[in-house]
């Protein structure tokens, strides 16, 4: 598996950097439809495109180590906040 997993949908592009992710699972708690933890304790995508945009952004934003990055359709970084 790659060090980076990326998914686009709902006008957002979401990337999980597996080298930064430490396994707190806060994103899974916020949006279990979007993420699950794999057998290494790293977040992987389920169906993030089916989660309400604001809830998905919150789920990505709660990552304490900024391992999840989100851009809008215009290429602006939304998470982590700049």
Keywords, separated by commas or semicolons:
82 residues, alpha+beta, Alpha-Beta Plaits, two-stranded antiparallel ribbon, 2 helices, globular
Coarse shape: globular
Helix content: 10-25%
Beta percentage is 25-35%
For the record, give the distance between the C-alpha atoms at the N and C termini, rounded to a whole number.
29 Å
Record the strand order, biggest sheet. Answer: 1-2-5-6
CATH fold-level topology? Alpha-Beta Plaits
Tally the helices. Answer: 2
Major sheet: 4 strands, antiparallel
Overall mean pLDDT score?
A: 94
* Poorly predicted sequence stretches spanning 5 or more consecutive residues: none
How many discrete structural domains?
A: 1
Structural class: alpha+beta
Total beta-strand segments? 6
Estimated radius of gyration = 11 Å
Provide the CATH top-level class: Alpha Beta
The appropriate CATH architecture is 2-Layer Sandwich
Task: Summarize the structure in words.
There is one protein chain. With 82 residues, this protein is of the alpha+beta class. It has one domain: Alpha-Beta Plaits, CATH 3.30.70. The chain contains two helices and six strands; from the N terminus they run ββαββαββ. The strands form two sheets. Strands 1-2-5-6 form a four-stranded antiparallel beta sheet. A two-stranded antiparallel ribbon has the order 3-4. The longest helix is centred in the C-terminal third of the chain and has 9 residues. The radius of gyration is 11 Å and the shape is globular. 23% of the residues are buried.
């Amino acid at each position: 598996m790659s060090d980076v997993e990326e998914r686009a949908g709902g006008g957002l592009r979401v990337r999980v950097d597996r080298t930064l992710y430490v396994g707190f699972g806060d994103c899974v708690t916020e949006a279990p439809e979007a993420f699950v933890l794999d057998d290494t304790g790293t977040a992987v995508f389920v169906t993030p495109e089916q989660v309400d945009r604001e809830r998905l952004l919150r789920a990505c934003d709660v990552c304490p180590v900024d391992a999840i990055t989100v851009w809008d359709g215009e290429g602006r970084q939304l998470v982590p906040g700049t």
